[in-house]
Amino acid sequence: MRPMLLSISNRITRNMEDAEDVVQEVCLRLWHMRDSMEQYKNVKALCVTMTKNLSIDKVRCQRIELGDEELVNVENDDKIMPDKVLEEKDIQSFIRDAINKLPPLQRQVLHLKDIEGYETDEIVDIMGINSESVRNNLSRARKRLRELIETYHVNERILL
Amino acid sequence: MNIKDVIDRYFVGDTSIEEERLLRDYFSDTDNIDEEIKYLQPMFNYLSDEAKALQVLSEVLAEEREDVKRVNDKSKVRKLVIIVSSFAASLLIGAFLLFGNMNNKSKNYVWIDGERITNPEVVSEYAEASFSDVVSDNDILEQQLGSFFE
Fold first, then answer.
1. Among partner residues A4, A115, A143, which is closest to B47 by beta-carbon distance?
2. Which domain holds residue A141?
3. B46 in contact with A at a CB cutoff of 8 Å?
4. In a domain, A72, yes or no
5. Are residue A85 and residue A149 in the same domain, yes or no?
6. What are phi and psi of A74, to 5 degrees?
7. CA angle A44-A49-A55, nearest 5°?
8. What is the number of alpha carbons within 13 Å of residue A2 lying toward its C-beta?
């Protein structure tokens, strides 16, 4: 399975070193989860999902311009993450949770349209609902996400 | 094209695939986003990243299925070669045994008038003819006893 996970990560991060880091992280997490593996019906799917998510996180971190900021804490030599990177990780995690908490129909329509890239007509065929229902559920899902993100930003400003 | 109009229609669910791609491209360019709508950038980036990752996953899994299919096909071909080879070997052994027996028959021969005869029927005829000329001990005894009783 390792070559497959490496291939997935490499194609997402476009960097073999980062891909190696990601797969190493996946292995480490699996090791820590080894006592509770029975609860997972499909370990392969779990590994693929973890690899995908960690690879995307790597790409997002790289997207943020770190500039000339020092990454090393001078006092105790621990590595620290710049605030921007942490903020990016937080909000992405927030959005992932927000999507998972959407009502099932809205979540499915949003996933099919915005992530899997299906056309409305195709979603009608897949889900067995009419195009008006697709449009309405899509609109509600997107608006709900927008509200949650606005709230998130307001709360962040309050904290600051 | 007014990007805010497109965004409004996006949230109503009225945008085309092309317009949605336009929105993602717009929000991926960090330096040129309108401050009023900048808060939406994480949402579009998230969806864009997930879509790209899913495409990568589909490609990798499709390649893996192809590899498995290739390995299975090779295995089938190997099995077929073994079966055909076994059959051919059986035929060869059978042919050898059959042909070998036929050849053994031709090893039987007789010399008649300086000529080597291998035809089994001819050999058999000459053999019977030769044996019929041979007088048995019983015949000799019968002849002698017959003259005695005359």
1. A115
2. 80-160
3. yes
4. no
5. yes
6. -65, -35
7. 125
8. 8
Please, are residues A121 and A131 in contact by the beta-carbon 8 Å criterion? yes
Tell me how far apart the alpha carbons of residues B54 and B5 are, in angstroms, rounded to a whole number. Answer: 29
Nearest CB among A11, A56, A114 relative to B60 is that of A11
Buried b (16+ CB within 10 A) or exposed e, A129-139: beeeebbbbbb
- Give the domain ranges of chain B: 3-102, 108-149
Mind listing the pLDDT tens digit for each residue in B20-70?
999 999 998 777 888 889 899 999 999 998 998 888 888 888 888 888 888
Residues A42 and A84 in one domain: no
- d(CA B145, CA B138) in angstroms, rounded, equals 10
Question: Based on the structure, what is the number of domains in chain A?
Answer: 2
Model ipTM?
0.73
Q: What is the pTM of this model?
A: 0.63
- Do the Cβ atoms of B3 and B34 come closer than 8 Å? yes
**What span, in angstroms and rounded, lies between the C-alpha atoms of A19 and B75?**
32
Q: Check CB contact of B67 with chain A, cutoff 8 Å.
A: no
Task: Check CB contact of B71 with chain A, cutoff 8 Å.
Answer: no
> Cα(B68)–Cα(B133) distance, rounded to whole angstroms?
82
Contacts of A117 (CB under 8 A, 6+ apart): B17, B51
Residue of A nearest to B17 (CA): A119
A9 CB-contact burial (10 Å; exposed 0-12 / middle 13-18 / buried 19+): buried
CB contact under 8 A, B40 and A149: yes
Q: Which residues pair with residue B116 across a beta bridge?
A: B111
For residue B10, CA distances in Å to A71, B30, B124, B129, B133 come to 39, 20, 106, 115, 121
